[in-house]
Amino acid sequence: MAVNARQVASSAIVYRTGRLFFELIDCYAPALETLALLGETLKHALINMLTMQNSMNTRVHPDWINQNFEWYRAAWIECGELIEHYGYKWWKKQSPDMEQVRLEVIDIWHFGLSAMFQADKSIEQMAAEIEQAITGHTPSALDVREATEALALNALQTHGFSPALFWDLMLASGLDFNALYSAYVGKNVLNFFRQDNGYQDGSYKKNWDGKEDNEHLVELIEALDKQADDFAQQVYQALEQRYQELVRD
User: Fold this and answer.
1) What's the pLDDT at 31?
2) Positive or negative CA dihedral for 19, 25, 31, 32?
3) Do the beta carbons of residue 215 and residue 241 sit within 8 Å?
4) Element (H, E) at 245
5) What is the pLDDT of residue 84?
6) What dihedral angle (degrees, nearest 10) is formed by the CA atoms of 35, 39, 41, 43?
């Protein structure tokens, strides 16, 4: 069955009183050395992330898939922001801010997942295609700047998104699939939190006591159990508590 952006495509997502709570599919793998060992875990995680991304995008526009938004453009612009955090100016001293670099990698993945949606394909089909692209790819061992440029160039040339080239960037930034998944869930929950608190009408405050909400998210996730069944709900509640303490009060 093809994806309908109006439809929540999995029981992995539950809405209650306008707030989003996730019952996450059990797809946190232990530390794995090779993609071959990921097996069904990789596919299930991709289905879960695609489902979550569809729900987030549907929150912004009920028929988002048919709007032909330029997700590829958002992805390559994020690539530029990543390079800013990593550093490229040989004429001055710069130290890579790898925490921010990895946050940009997660943002790029959100846009990349969105770019790969097609109205005539189911989430399961798209997950299978992404899995095939990743497992059939030999990592390039490019450094962060080179991997970022390769991904951005591909987006500009194809107006699409390459999971394989993204994989190179993920590895170059020091992330593995486990870290990508948990960080993606956290950022997805933050995006819902933003929407719940006035992101579209401009009333949401992105800066909390001198730091962006992204930075608070990283701090809060560190203190949580990423393997917990209610991990996403814990993230939402932690964000809500800190926002109440630092912004609303």
Assistant:
1) 29
2) negative
3) no
4) none
5) 97
6) 90
Does residue 6 lie in a domain region? no
Closest CA to 9 of 108, 160, 119, 110: 119
Backbone φ, ψ for residue 211 (5° rounding): -130, 145
Domain extent, residue 26, equals 13-248
| Residue type (1 letter), 15 | Y
Measured from the Cβ of residue 160, the count of other Cβ atoms closer than 10 Å reads 13
In this prediction, residue 163 carries a pLDDT of 97
Residue 19 φ then ψ, to 5°: -110, 150
Q: Distance between CA atoms of 13 and 9, rounded to whole angstroms?
A: 8
Contact 71, 115 (CB under 8 A): yes
pLDDT value of residue 40: 56
Residue 212 — φ and ψ, nearest 5°?
A: -70, 155
Decide if 51 is inside a domain: yes
Query: How much is the pLDDT for 88?
Result: 95
Low-confidence ranges of the chain (pLDDT < 70): 1-40, 249
- Give the predicted TM-score (pTM) of the model: 0.76
Kindly state whether residue 58 falls inside one of the protein's structural domains.
Answer: yes
d(CA 175, CA 92): 27
